[in-house]
Each structure stands twice: as structure tokens, then as C-alpha cells.
Design goal:
Keywords: Disulfide bond, Protease inhibitor, Serine protease inhibitor. This is BPTI/Kunitz inhibitor domain-containing protein. This protein is α+β, with helices and mostly antiparallel strands. It folds into 2 domains: 58 residues, Pancreatic trypsin inhibitor Kunitz domain (Factor Xa Inhibitor, Irregular); 54 residues, Irregular (Factor Xa Inhibitor), CATH 4.10.410.10. The protein contains 3 helices and 4 strands. The strands form 2 sheets. Strands 1-2 form a two-stranded antiparallel ribbon. A two-stranded antiparallel sheet has the order 3-4. A hairpin with a 4-residue loop joins β3 and β4. The termini are far apart.
Length: 133
């Protein structure tokens, strides 16, 4: 029953344009890159991974993505920007070259920003923080 009763996660579905021939501009979530992208929907069937606006796509799908778990994507452009990215296999941040467009969100300006965002912290080694109360 669980396989049939659980709602499927539309954000992880590969975009399906459907069999019809309309050309409707939509937004779809690319789970490999962890970003919302423009797409053309045929107008019928397909699946739930299509949104009328970028905002609705981002609100539904991007909060669920852990950018640190994404494989670094330098993007299709040819610029040369030194950035930092988190490598899950090595469990550390490392330098990379970003092409300047597209790519994904596993990209940081500084090593500190990458470490703060991605490195798993052993709770026992954290400094005590009493909080504001």
C-alpha cells in the first residue's frame, strides 16, 4: 500500500513535455542541478514537475535541496571564476572553476562560506551558545 498511497515527490521527476504539440512556457525543477529552469510544455499529460512561475517552482522544490550534496557543475559558459565547492566524497570544500552561468548552487565565494554551509559539525566540539534568552 505504501508504494501506491504515498504522494510522489514531483520535484524529483524528470520533466515530461507530454505528447501534445502546444508550446507553453513553464518552469521545471532540475533535481540533478538543484535549480528551477525554463521549459516548454506540450499542453497535455506529462507529469507534475511543471510550474506556472519561477517563484512557485522555487517555493515548492528548492528548499528541499541540500546544495552541498549536489555534484559541482561549472556551467556551459567559458568565463574563469575561482570558487569553492563541497565535495561529498572527500567530505571537504575544494577550489573549482565556475564558467559564469548556469551550474548549480554548490558554489561559494570563499572557503569559510563553504565550510560554514556544508561541513558537518560534531555537536560535542561546538562552542556553547546560551542564546538570546
Amino acid at each position: 500500500c505504501e508504494g501506491k498511497c504515498q504522494q510522489e515527490d514531483i520535484c524529483n521527476l524528470k520533466f515530461d513535455t507530454g505528447p501534445c504539440k502546444a508550446a507553453i512556457n513553464v518552469w521545471t525543477f532540475n533535481s540533478e542541478k538543484g535549480v528551477c529552469e525554463k521549459a516548454i510544455y506540450g499542453g497535455c499529460l506529462g507529469n507534475g514537475n511543471k510550474f506556472r512561475s519561477e517563484e512557485s517552482c522555487v517555493n515548492r522544490c528548492q528548499p528541499t535541496v541540500d546544495k552541498c550534496s549536489l555534484r559541482f557543475d561549472s556551467g556551459p559558459c567559458d568565463a574563469y571564476f575561482n570558487v569553492w565547492t563541497y565535495n561529498t566524497e572527500k567530505d571537504q570544500c575544494e577550489e573549482a572553476v565556475y564558467g559564469g552561468c548556469s551550474g548549480n548552487s554548490n558554489r561559494f565565494k570563499t572557503l569559510d562560506e563553504c565550510n560554514l554551509s556544508c561541513q558537518k559539525k560534531d555537536v560535542c566540539s561546538l562552542r556553547f551558545d546560551a542564546g538570546p534568552c
